[in-house]
Amino acid sequence: MEIAPRLTPLDQAPSVGTWLFMRLCRWLLGKVMMPARVIYTRMPRLLFPQMLMYRLAARGLSLPPALVHRVQIRVSVHHGCAFCSDIHRAIALREGHRPERLDAPGTTPPPLDAAEQVALAYVDELCAHTRTSDATFAAARAHFSERQIVELTWLYAFTTYLNRLAGAFAIGSDDFCAIVPRRGADPSLLTRR
């Protein structure tokens, strides 16, 4: 049973930027994402700063792209954000990442390398406690540069922020995983590194 968002989705864009974003969503993803209809139509000034953050996550990190997707999916699943886990997974699939490498915790994906295991353990601890133990931080330092540890922590924090926004308004999955792989549009306009 699909749960309706707490605020009625709006299809009328209040600004040119919101209208363009909604058009881009429809072209790239097959439909307008629910946060655009629930959040950005009511607070359009939020869109531009968030788009800069999305761009940073997609193109501005030195972490491997597959790891960025795994972290975003892992954090979203941990927080119970169906919308975010679906869209992060769909974008990763569009970029050609193997679905079995993106699965949620509790499934049996192919073995991860040591750095991936450390990164996911790091964000798992952040999700559970909002901080990591000295041992987990030391393990992260053994596999990642200081910049990459900051990036990993920022990625956790940004994904958590998005999860909290979607969760507060009861925004569920848009089922992008079912739509996006079939779309003909080039997703690299949104996610190109």
Tally of contiguous helical segments = 10
CATH topology of the domain at 61-191: AhpD-like
SS content category: mainly alpha
In one word, what is the shape?
elongated
* Low-pLDDT runs: 187-193
Can you tell me the CATH superfamily of the domain at 61-191?
Answer: AhpD-like
| Proportion of residues in helical segments | 55-70%
SSE string? HHHHHHHHHH
Rg over alpha carbons: 17 Å
Give the amount of beta strand, in percent: under 5%
Cα(first) to Cα(last) distance is: 37 Å
Assign the CATH architecture of the domain at 61-191.
Up-down Bundle
- Broad CATH class of the domain at 61-191: Mainly Alpha
Report mean pLDDT, rounded to a whole number. 89
Summarize the structure in words.
The chain is mainly alpha-helical and 193 residues long. The chain has a domain of 131 residues: AhpD-like (Up-down Bundle), CATH 1.20.1290.10. It starts with 15 loop residues before the first helix and ends with a helix.
How do you describe this structure in short?
By secondary structure, the protein is mainly α. The chain has a domain of about 130 residues: AhpD-like, CATH 1.20.1290.10. It has 10 helices and no strands.
Q: How do the helices and strands line up, and which of them pair or pack?
A:
Elements: H1 16-29, H2 34-40, H3 47-59, H4 65-78, H5 82-94, H6 114-129, H7 134-143, H8 146-168, H9 176-179, H10 188-191
Helix pairs in contact: 4-5, 4-6, 4-8, 6-7, 6-8
Give descriptors for this structure.
193 residues; mainly alpha; disordered C terminus; AhpD-like; 10 helices; single chain
